[in-house]
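Hi R.,

Here's the chain you asked about this morning:
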Amino acid sequence: MVKSKNSLLLRAITSVLLTIGFYGLALAIAGGLLFLVYAQFVIFETVNSRLTLFAIVGAVVIIWAILPRIDRFIPPGPQLTPSEFPLLFREIKAVADLTQQEMPRDVYLIPDVNAFVAERGGMMGIGRRRVMGIGLGLLKLLNISELKSVLAHEFGHYYGGDTALGPWIYRTRTAIIRTAVNVGHQSSLLQAPFVWYAKMFLRITNAISRQQEFSADRLSATIVGKQAATSSLTKIHRYSSAFGAFWQQEYLPVVNNGFRPSLLNGFDRFLETQNVTQKVESSYQQVLSQEKADPYDTHPSLKERLAALESLPQGEEMNDQPALSLVQDPEDLEGRILMSIAIDKEKIKTLKPLQWEDLTEIVYLPMWEKNAQSFAGALTGMTIGNLPEHAKKFPVLFLQIAANGWKLPPNVKPKDVPPQVQLQICSNVVGCALISTLRKQGWGVKTGLGEEVTLEEDGQIVKPFQVFIELATGKLTKEDWETTCTELGIYALNLASNQLPSQ
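And here is the predicted structure, written out as tokens:
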């Protein structure tokens, strides 16, 4: 306990000194600029209008950038309450008692394989309140012991005073970056000292953050045991990116098309796909191979964290009961998350139920057909056989697609879109046209969660969303593609003659 208090005191002193240092630097530079204006008028009795304007604008920009902002907390998901989820809050309360910490005032459900704690609200930490976020993916993947380990880790940040220091570090970091960016618009010379201080600040505070993670891990393993701490860490690092990919690339597109399949059941199916399994394992091994964290990382590497836990006690016997058993209706949680992120709440209420096995027929095929028809005008004169010619000049095709109604972000012009994004958009449109065209010739479409889309006919396979990219990058040669098209009898098929099926 004494060691913890000493560590907290050292972190607090370091954070305060770094904060004072930044504001001292900013005020000194702003004061120096204003003194230049004063010196011209009073001491030298001569005025350089350009220098005066530069100094005044620079000082105003700096002072405006460093002014403290009110922390307006936006809930990251639906709020959970003890009355609705007594079993879950029983576990949270048990861990809070073991760590001798107060319960967070608000607990939120988030679409993630992770958890967090923070003290939010107020200004510069004054008037803040404790909040906690628990990932739905976390409840799905962990057992109860592993969940307790994660909760103990998060309460460890309260225990170590990390969340009390967090507002100071976060707001100072934000102010430094805001100042460096704003000043950089005026002068790279004025920007230089803030860039230097930002790098120093990040290296020092992120080193502190990494030590905080080690301390929270140690507390978690001490309370729940090394076995649960190691297992939960491993699962989070193995599956968090997979859940993010499923959420963004598979689930939300289906929701945006008016349907609501089971989120958790879909994630199970997603993880069972061979393609996804291989990517998950490859990504995990890459994470595990990182020996040390980068000086600018906020967390230690997984290898460092697992090694630090080795000497700690094995802990209590694992409770293998799924953490999801702590909530009565997981499907209700899925609905709450959707409602919390939706701009149009009424649309969520009208979503149609959908089984994942019906996804291709009910959602994807109509969507691809619609896209093929919408951008048929951009594909005028394009046949399957002459795709190589268009792939080599894909920026021209992209401009035609944009002119035919492809929606770009606000204030983004077609010429501002990076080449790789242009190529991907072209590939998407061409892929939809290939599916629409070849389906009319009797080809079948095969796909699934996390799987590539393939067109198949008599043992022949075409990957519609890969062909254009491979032709543009040279992975697939013009000669090989033309030979394939000739052998399959699809060379002369027109990609611009797509129509939606009659209703």
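One quick note: Confidence is low (pLDDT under 50) at residues 1-5, 499-503.

Cheers,
M.
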